[in-house]
Structures are given as structure tokens and as C-alpha cells.
Specification:
The chain has 149 residues and is an alpha/beta fold. It is built from 2 helices and 7 strands; from the N terminus they run H-E-E-H-E-E-E-E-E.
Length: 149
Amino acid sequence: MFSHAEFIRIQAMTGREFTIDAACNDDGSNSHCSVYASPKQSFFKHNITGEHIWVNAPFEQAKQWINHYKRCKANSPFDTSAVFVLPKTSNYDKIIQGMSLLCEYPKGTQLFTIPTKEGGREYINIDRTIPYQLIGGITAPNFLGGAVR
């Protein structure tokens, strides 16, 4: 799960409350939003037009999530927005064209947490060798130049 504290910081940066968490487990226990998509309630069946979406999808499938977002955004380009958590690699360069870089996180940044036995959360290092980035399909004026952390 992406750090909830960092999620709140990013949400504040966007100036808009996220309305859907696009890639959660079926019980929603890893969702940052009250509305979420999951394997049983597929993001690809959601009409996300007019929504502000948080997307921390499986990286090997991220292009599918971006394509669905772009199709829905085409129907309502000024009020449909999203933020995608992606590894910073050239694999995504073509598909994120026209989107804004919101943040970059250097290698080893602690961004992801897992539940503890005590009911809390602790940071994990999925891969300390990969830098991450947040890419936004946001049309708000505060993202015209992007923000880099």
C-alpha cells in the first residue's frame, strides 16, 4: 500500500479530493478512498468521467489503467483527472506523453507499507533500486509546470 501520509500530501497538492482508488484488493482494506475498484469490481468497468482517480496499479499492467483513464477523460477533459504511481523507467514514456510529472522519489524512498501484527503499518522496500514517479493527468493551473519533490 502506498504511504497514506504521502497520499494525503499528494491529494492536497492536487487541490481536489480523490474520489476513486482504482487498484485495490477486493475488501478495500488497502484503499485510500471510500470508493474503490478491485478485481471483483474492475476499474475497467467503471465510468470514471468527472472523477479524480488515485492509481497505484500493478506496474506490469499500468498501461491498461492509463489507457482506460484516457478514454474516459476524452469524454470530459476538464473535470476528469488522475494521479498514477509508476516506476521511473522509459517503459512509460510514450503512454504518459501529455501528462505532468508531479513528484519524483529517489531510489530507496520508503513509499509502501504493509500491515503489522499489532494492527499498524510499517514501511517496506519493494525494490530499493527503482526510483518512482507520480504522473498526473491534471488540468488545474497549479500543475502546468509540474511539481518535483
